[in-house]
Structure formats: C-alpha cells, structure tokens
C-alpha cells in the first residue's frame, strides 16, 4: 500500500512519554513515528527504515541499474511508503548521478539545487507569464528540487487567494489536510513551473515524508532536453478553476 501524505493531516512529532497509545498524535494522524518523536525507539509505530543493501553491489536484480538503489517501488519500503530514506535505513547515501547508492535521499540530503539545472524565461504557455526551463538535458525521474514556501491553513489560503486572484498570480500547493504551501514570497524558482495537462506534463510533484515532515519533491516524468519548458499537471482542482491563476494541486 502506498501512503498518500498529501491527504493526511500535517505531521508534528508526538510528545508521548511512554509507548505511543491511541492518544498519540502520530498514530491518530495516520503517520509513522520518526526520529523526531519523543517516544522511545522501541515504539511499535516507529518507521524502521528500509533494508536495501545497495552499499554492497546492487540488489542482484538484472533489470535494475546496479549503481542505484531504493528506486524501484516494489523493493524499497521507504519508496513504497512515500518517504525519503534516512538514518535508520541500511542503504548508502549517494550524490545524485555521481556516486553509486541510494537515490531516495534528495530533500533531506540537500542534494539538488533548482538553480543549477533550470532557468526562468518567458513561458510558451498562453498567458503563462514566466516559465521554468531546463538548463541542460535532464534524465527521467531527475529530482528538480523542493517546492518551498510558507505552510498555511486552508482558511488563510482562501483569504490570500482573493488578493492573488486580483494579481492573476497564485502559487499554492496542497500539502496536507488543511495545509497549503504558498510559494508567493518564500518560494524558489520551481514556483514558475506552469500548468500542462496530462501527457504534456514533463514534471510530477510528490509529497514525501522527510525526517518527520511532509515536503514536496518535483521531478521529471521523462527525459527533458536543454531549453525545453518544464510543465506539470496542477490536478483536478486547477481544471475546475476559472480565471487564469495558477493553483498547484498535488496528485
Ligand atoms: Zn506517540
Ligand atoms: Zn510519534
Ligand atoms: Zn530502500
Ligand atoms: Zn530507506
Ligand atoms: Zn535508500
């Protein structure tokens, strides 16, 4: 089963003194406990990490790229659960595309900087304003970086939305139940990625759990050539929206 962190409540580390019971905030919210929780390490709700052993010589699977691990959903417990690998995992940390090892440590390991691989220019999308483009050829599943911003409540997003609609700008992304990331002031260049529906989208967002909090990872859906515009499908909410502002919605 795949955990959809975007539909769970915003995670806060629990403050359980003993073992987590029904009152535990993590358990009540449908989250695993993490190293940031106060409960003892013997807590049965603690995420145990994956036991991928890519630090030896691949997984033995002929189809798999021997230099990467924790990439295939069916193998890595972390990838299946929508989590980045962390301290409790057995896999080895790697530099994306440079060293062999786990490729499921991106945001937590601060491995990618969107500025290195992309640039902002006038969008080819009609009424798109600024858009984001690939600076160099990017391989499939290349992590572009984290969609950053302020985490605000739905009510605050509704309030700000009225102002943004006037400006014809909107950089919201649904992160969790009652939690929206607003990239208007504190976001990075990834907020300039415009909407492209269905097959046109060459970027996909995913809410992943990193060290106890939900974060938004954007990565390429397929290989992208240098100079190509990056677009992603903003989801059904955006399709319903009428007016031209850019609302990001996770899948
Ligand atoms: Zn707890
Ligand atoms: Zn907990
Ligand atoms: Zn793994
Ligand atoms: Zn792992
Ligand atoms: Zn890993």
From TrEMBL:
Limits of the CXC domain: 1-93
Keywords: Methyltransferase, S-adenosyl-L-methionine, Transcription, Transcription regulation, Transferase
Source taxon at top rank: Eukaryota
One example of a Gene Ontology biological process annotation: methylation
Domain SET: 115-235
Gene Ontology CC, one term: nucleus
Tagged with keyword Repressor: no
Family matches, as PANTHER family: HISTONE-LYSINE N-METHYLTRANSFERASE E(Z)
Record protein name field: SET domain-containing protein
Species, as recorded: Catenaria anguillulae PL171
């Amino acid at each position: 089963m795949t955990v959809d962190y975007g539909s769970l409540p915003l995670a806060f580390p629990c403050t359980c003194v003993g073992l987590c019971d029904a009152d535990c905030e993590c358990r009540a919210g449908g989250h695993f406990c993490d190293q940031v929780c106060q409960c003892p390490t013997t807590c049965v709700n603690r995420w145990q990490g994956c036991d991928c052993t890519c630090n030896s010589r691949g997984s033995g699977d002929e189809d798999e790229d021997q230099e990467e691990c924790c990439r295939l959903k069916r193998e890595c417990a972390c990838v299946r659960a929508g989590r980045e690998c962390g301290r409790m995992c057995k896999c080895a940390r790697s530099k994306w595309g440079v060293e062999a090892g786990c490729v499921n440590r991106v945001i937590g390991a601060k491995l990618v900087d969107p500025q290195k691989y992309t640039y902002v220019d006038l969008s080819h999308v009609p009424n798109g304003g600024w858009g984001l483009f690939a600076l160099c050829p990017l391989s499939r599943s290349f992590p572009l970086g984290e969609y950053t911003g302020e985490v605000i409540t739905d009510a605050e997003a509704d309030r700000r939305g009225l102002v943004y609609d006037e400006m014809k700008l909107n950089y919201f992304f649904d992160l969790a139940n009652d939690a929206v990331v607003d990239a208007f002031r504190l976001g990075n260049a990834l907020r300039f990625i415009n909407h492209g529906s269905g097959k046109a989208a060459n970027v996909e967002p995913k809410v992943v759990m990193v060290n106890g909090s939900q974060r938004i990872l954007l990565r390429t859906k397929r290989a992208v050539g240098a100079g190509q515009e990056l677009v992603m499908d903003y989801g059904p909410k955006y399709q319903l929206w009428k007016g031209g502002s850019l609302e990001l919605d996770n899948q």
